[in-house]
Amino acid sequence: MSMNVNPSSPPGSVPGGDDATGLVALLARSSRGEESAFADLYDRTSSKVYGLARRVVRDPAQAEEVAQEAYLEIWRQSARYDTSRGSVLAWMLTIVHRRAVDRVRSSEASRERDTKFATLGDGPDYDVVTEAVTNNLETARVRKALSTLTDVQREALTLAYYGGYTHREVSELLDVPLGTIKTRMRDGLIRLRDTLGVEA
Amino acid sequence: MTSDAPDIHTLSGAYALDALDPTEATAFEGHLESCESCRDEVRSFRDAVGALADDVATPAPDRLRTSVLSAITAVRPLPPVVPVDAPSAPVAPSGVTTSASSEAAPALASEELATRRATKARRAPAWLLVAAAVLAVVAAGGLWRSVSLQQQLTSVTAMAADVSAVITSPDATTVSGEVAGSGRAAVVRSASSGKAVLVTDGVPAAPAGKTYQAWFITSDGTATSAGLVPSGDHTAVLLSGSPRSGAVVGVTLEPAGGSSQPTTKPVVAIMV
Ligand SMILES: [Zn+2]
């Protein structure tokens, strides 16, 4: 990657590292209506925000809409961010992810997907999804962390997070009982978290 | 193997991945109110999944930057606390004042249920006053021009006088609840006039071809339509009919135009 959009994230940082990136301060200034601070915040986060939206909804035009809605919500809610609830980036990405997931679950696209899903039966759909995801993982660190997971853990995580699938859908896609999927999602996140060194 | 009653703590992972169904997410958020270890766990999971987002980073189109930065000029960041000084409209009604300190708003609405889910509040939550303020601004001629909300708020504008009459009535009581998925809703009810207003905040727009519809639901399960609820980030609508104290106001997603009886599970149910 070249040196565009992302000057602020040192390699190997986890999203907990707001202090290094000044996101907390930028958000605080945004909450006082400083548009230039929000522009900085945008520049430091847009590739992640847009990339996540794009990953989940796929359609570039819809991804832009989701990212735009998310940024407006972040702007509006900026005074309500609370440091005790996690990093600024994690807070922002949660907003983005929810909006992206809402979009795929409520849109026409999702109805089509569901239809396809029903007719596919136990087809290899998820392999395509996870493979695409895996190929796009750019840092060795996250790849490595993901590689420490079991197959089911990894697939459950990526299908839910990148694919926007519910745990029921994941259970169907992987043909693994729902109760097991729930547990695997949690186990997988614990292992991912610990491998990445996020503070528990 | 069936797992009909799994330990609710195990849902933390699916919750952090936004993979629960709305009703399950609501139930888990209820659990989060009382389970500190799940709250901590969800927070740490969020930081971890943030790293996954790192790795799908994609440069955003330039026009997104232009469009975001232009849109924010027309939207005022919500204040951390009230009071709100909106022009020319009743915003901080006497019956529902709030004190400044206690409503430091949530990092994420749906995680902040603890104190506020479906609790009878004498003081209106800050976000409700903010919603009222937004309505006042809209009614006063509108700052929301550049955002697509304006359309959706048109019908709200027409209702604003009725709405503010209820919200500002001296005997107004407010009960709020979390909306499954995201957002919050509150019912402001004036016993003397028998009227009630439904206020929403951060509720996603209804999918194409659907609408939100409000219901009065009695203890025996009888539902009576209380009217359609406009979509939008901040809406307030006068409910048609008079809920009795102890009735439940529920909101469901229905086919456009509404239904005569609810056809889906409520996204929120609030006892007034
Ligand atoms: Zn718990």
What would your notes on this structure say?
The complex is a heterodimer of chains A (200) and B (272). Chain A contains 11 helices and no strands. The N terminus of chain A is likely disordered. Chain A is an all-alpha fold. Chain A starts with 17 loop residues before the first helix and ends with a helix. Chain A has 2 domains: 115 residues, Rna Polymerase Sigma Factor, Chain: A (Orthogonal Bundle), CATH 1.10.1740; 74 residues, Winged helix-like DNA-binding domain superfamily/Winged helix DNA-binding domain (Arc Repressor Mutant, subunit A). In chain B, the strands form 2 sheets. Chain B has a 5-stranded antiparallel sheet with strand order 1-2-3-4-7. In chain B, strand 2 and strand 3 form a beta hairpin. Chain B is an alpha+beta fold and 272 residues long. Chain B has 2 domains: 55 residues; 147 residues, no CATH class. Chain B is 30% helix and 22% strand. At the A-B interface, helix 3, helix 4, helix 5, helix 8 and helix 9 of A face helix 1, helix 3 and helix 4 of B. Bound molecules: zinc ion. Zinc ion (ZN) binds next to helix 3 of chain B.
Mean pLDDT of chain A: 79
Fraction of helical residues of chain B: 25-40%
Output the structural class of chain B: alpha+beta
Poorly predicted runs of chain A are 1-16, 113-138
Which homologous superfamily in CATH is the superfamily of the largest domain in chain A?
Answer: RNA polymerase sigma factor, region 2, helix turn helix motif
Largest sheet of chain B: 5 strands, antiparallel
| Overall tally of domains of chain A | 2
Q: Strand-residue fraction of chain B?
A: 15-25%
Give the overall average pLDDT of chain B: 69
CATH architecture label name of the largest domain in chain A: Orthogonal Bundle
- Return Rg of chain A in Å: 18 Å
Biggest sheet descriptor of chain A: none
SSE-based structural type of chain A: mainly alpha
Q: N-to-C SSE series of chain B?
A: HHHHEHHEEEEEEEE
